[in-house]
Specification:
Blueprint lengths: L6 H11 L9 H12 L4 H11 L3 H10 L11 E6 L2 H5 L2 H12 L12 E6 L11 E3 L2 E3 L4 H14 L3
Parallel strand pairs: 1-2
Antiparallel strand pairs: 1-3, 3-4
Helix pairs in contact: 2-3, 3-4
The structure holds FE2/S2 (inorganic) cluster (FES).
Length: 162
């Protein structure tokens, strides 16, 4: 898949670059934009970011692989990101993760065959005070329990006739 920004998007990146001493400081904005447009960051996406920012592909890959919010392969319409760091783990994160895996018949890191759900196990989502937390796309589900989670999951399934 060819990765390409529009003239308007390139202008926005160029304008952002002027705010920083080093042009590669806008790498996160570039990667966010690629993910927003194409759903994930492929090798072509890494090459494109490397080219427009004039930094090495290895450096771009290092950033993509460091941050869990970047996806390196296609994900489902709903990305269920289960935090399993200490606060969430102590408050039942693994039970919720296993419940999701059983319910959707996939493991963490996999996508359902209909392309609707992807489950990921992620590091702290920065909301430890409301643990356990699961992020679904951009929304946080906090103070979760199994009933609440199944309710949300069933609503999402119903919306797609499953
Ligand atoms: S440990 Fe889960 S949000 Fe911080």
């Amino acid at each position: 898949m060819e990765i390409r920004f529009t003239d308007e998007e390139l202008q926005k990146i160029e304008s952002l670059k002027t705010r920083y001493l080093k042009p590669d400081s806008v790498i996160l904005e570039v990667l966010y934009l690629i993910q927003e447009k194409y759903g994930f960051i492929s090798y072509e996406g890494i090459k494109y970011a490397s080219k427009i920012l004039d930094i090495s592909e290895e450096h771009v890959y290092g950033i993509v692989s460091f941050y869990s919010m970047f996806n390196t392969k296609p994900i489902g319409k709903y990305h269920l990101q289960v935090c399993t760091n200490v606060s969430c783990m102590l408050r039942g994160a693994y039970e919720l993760l296993h419940k999701l895996e059983d319910e959707l018949k996939i493991k963490a890191g996999e996508t359902t065959p209909d392309g609707l759900f992807t489950i990921s196990e992620v590091e702290c989502l920065g909301s430890c005070g409301t643990a356990p937390v699961i992020q679904i796309n951009k929304d946080y589900l906090e103070n979760l329990n199994e009933d609440k989670l199944m309710h949300v999951l069933n609503d999402l399934k119903k919306a797609y006739g499953n």
